[in-house]
Amino acid sequence: MTQDASPETVLGDFVRSNSIAFLGVTAEMVREGTNFAMKLRDEQGRTQSLPVVRTVGSRRMQQYLTVDGTRHVRLPVAYDLVNRRWMHLNGSFFYPDGTDFRHHVTEWNSNCIFCHNTKAVPGYDWEKKTWDSQVAELGIGCGSCHGPALDHVRLAAKPATKQLWLDHAGDAPPKQIVHPGKIDSDRAMQICGHCHGQRVPQPLDRIREIMTTGDPYDAGEDLHAFFAPIQKETKVGAMGFDTRFWGDGSPRLSAFEYQGLLRSKCHSSGQPGNRITCISCHSMHGGDPKGMIKERNRSNAACTTCHPKLSSTPNLIAHTRHSSGSAGSSCYECHMPKVTFGVMDAHRTHDISIPRPGDTFVLGKPNACNQCHLDKSVNWAIRESSRLWPKSSAIGMVGPGQFNEPEAARAIAAGDALVRGLTARALGGMNTNEASIDFAGPLLMQAMRDRYPIVRYFAANGLAAVDPKLPKPDYLAAPAAREASVNAWTNRFDAGTLLRVKELYDRLSSGRVETDIQVGE
Hints:
Low-confidence stretches: none
Largest sheet: 7 strands, antiparallel
Mean pLDDT: 92
Number of helices: 19
Helix content: 25-40%
Oligomer: single chain
Strand content: 15-25%
Distance between the termini: 13 Å
């Protein structure tokens, strides 16, 4: 996750396609031998050369750190490892189009150091206002999950002690290593929640101590003795966190998985100390890096371990009212839909709950049914849910007029930018038959005009999936160039369809009130 910059660790293209112009500034990434730098030039011709000393990330995107005095500072241009291109961080985080090229410059010592490294000690001197930051290990090392290991290593160096451990001898000294699979399940989940559950110090004024002497938490301890997980109602001074949660308090963003699981009945109804936890599904030593989940747990087997009756196909069909093998019979799709955002993608919520389409107009939260049935309305989903599952659905509860429209059209025109982004992402994953293309394509063209770059990112990817032969629009291009790239798609769709979609979009977006969400990773 965090590495010193070297030819082996720097994954961005610093040699060929190595520049980007954005908001009046041109960034050129250069390599000189084994050294790397980012050179910035503004419209007045002023230049600045910033050495790249560290990297953050190595799978989806890679960010770069420079040094400013005693501080490490994140630079505003990163490399998209999936699409193999440079991007301003405005194109990765959930921020609207801005005017400040340096908006996403961030101090690493007071922020990123905590979750992207092992045992952070920021080392801030409150009088001199300088940093002497240290970590036990750059990146997420063994100690992040298993606790401090120096004493364990010293003991293991003694052949007699090592043999006693191998023999499971009763008089062997303690190994002093935390095994998340062999401790109280709630404490095990807190190990993950330490980083996958954004938090504030407990009490708040502990922040001064933490910024100086470091993060006090070690794996296996009671996380809540040091930190409180951020919730919808959390306040730090005048700053609130409500835009990071849906109307019911479930998370809208990744890095809040801990809060989601704490809310779920799967967790809360279990026996404290012996209930579902992160490693019930995830595997740190053997899972696919994309989610750290073993192949078995990518199926319904992850849920049927606790709900064995549903492993029978007839029982599954009776429960889901969908054919076996379809998305409608996937536990994940129905109970953990992709309604959270993080790292340039939509992710599954960990607030495991029953699908309730009415949540969309009551709470502003996308619902699992319409994540698949994008061409149907929310009110259609409410009526169908009432018909198929009368005991668990609110019969007769329907939303106002706009919720009679196809949900993809209503949501792509919604005032909530995150709803628009998640909808563009879902549209891009629709079946590529011609009917789906004619429905999704024109809506994605409208989304390419959104003022949030990440919404345009999902729209551009969706259009590329619709027709790989046409040029993929550049979601970070200047407005005129962006509009020209969208217009290049005009002949791909029926003129009447384009007109109807535009009229529908204009009608649904007319007078909308923007709900900004401005959150970086």
